[in-house]
Amino acid sequence: MKKNYIAYILLTASLMWSCSEIKDWQDEKDNIPPKSVTNVVVENINGGAIITYKLPDDPDLLAVKAVYYYKKGEDLKEAYSSAYNNTISLEGFPDVNERTVQLFTIDKSMNHSEPVEVQIKPLLPPVEMIRKSLKVNPTFGGVYMLWENTQEDEISITLYRKDAKGDMAFYDAYYSKAKEGKYTFRGLENAEQEFYFEIKDKWGNYSAPLDTVLTPLFEEEIVGRNKSGDIWQRWGWDDKSCIYRGDIVGQETAANRQFRLIHDGNTWNNSTWWHTKGNKLSDFIDWPNAEYTVMPLYFTIDMGKKASYSRLRYWMRSRSPIFSAQTFTSFEVWGTNNPKPLNQIGDGSKEDNLKYWTEWPEVNGTDEWKNDWEKLADFKLTLPSGATDPNLLTNEDTEFVKAGFEVEMDPQYANEPFRYIRFVIRECREPSAQIQLSELKFWGAYKE
């Protein structure tokens, strides 16, 4: 009986509450406008302005709104900054003309203050700064671009070329926000052509165009052998001077595992390949642990004649499962015509040469040789799916591996020939310092 009485009291109270007027807990609305900002300071920047101000002491202040235009005759733009900030940033202006900006404060009732007008005069738009830094040059089968984008703005660079009718026709576009940009438009024939480059930012602003006439370079394969025999040689192997340079010494002795097989034309096979035997420090100097391995690996090719290089492609051994053989996955490629003679390095000793030619801490290596060579490529291999386990490859990964791994050379050296090519291998496919390389091909152009 007592429980029923308590339930009755609670139900009655609930009904009384539901029938009474419920208070509106939302902020009360008014029609009183907030005060305006004061102490306004303008900092003009490239393509915009940063406006600083003192906020009014209004408890219900919500935001500050800036009203402005990019170009006269266009719709007005609006930008907002919260009541917790005392600055508002405006960007995307297409020129350096002076313009008026109106600043309003807004409260929680959406009342607007009286406007405060300030003058801004944006500095040179980023697209024009990028345009001033843009450099274009011919490269193999295309044109190569370099530019600086210090503000890391989102841009597109569009290439047009004159077609058979004499009109500038769209060819391709590239999108980037890189601080130091570079890109190559490929697939262009080796003939003089008129080009037109155009830079556009995310606000739709265009730079002044760049018009030029260029002749993309002719590309051919830089072959490793001809009818007379091998052209490429493993530099320093025959006289064993490679030991002084830290170049790979360990080598399988079988006839179908030799260096010369990397240019025999057999790309994807499991019968012939170059097979090294690790990189033991004891191969180079007296060392108590005969199995102690050093990285990175080095090897140098005397290409037989000078050539400039556009790209290379290499194939690993086609061992099963696919992508299980040792191959290099992170490496650099360097070029020179005048490698320093061994007897001009320090006192000519092996110790002084290893210090110069390697970065191995065990021999106090400095890699000083890099000061005398040019870096042509820096590559890290990644499969399309990102897989690293040979048992988890997708069909796309499998085709990617079979096609060989292509590496693009730095186009800034497209017109610079080199005779000696040196590889610096930082990582191998397996955690071992071995290489199983089926084929290596280069493309570019001979210079002699």
TrEMBL record:
Q: Where is the DUF4959 domain?
A: 18-122
Spell out the Gene3D superfamilies in the cross-references. Galactose-binding domain-like (2.60.120.260)
Q: Which residues form the DUF5000 domain?
A: 289-444
Cross-referenced InterPro entries: DUF4959 (IPR032527), DUF5000 (IPR032164), DUF5126 (IPR033431)
According to the entry, every stretch annotated as the DUF5126 domain falls at 125-222
Pfam families in UniProt? DUF4959, DUF5000, DUF5126
Protein name in the entry: DUF4959 domain-containing protein
Species of origin reads Bacteroides nordii
Give the classification, highest ranks.
Answer: Bacteria, Pseudomonadati, Bacteroidota, Bacteroidia, Bacteroidales
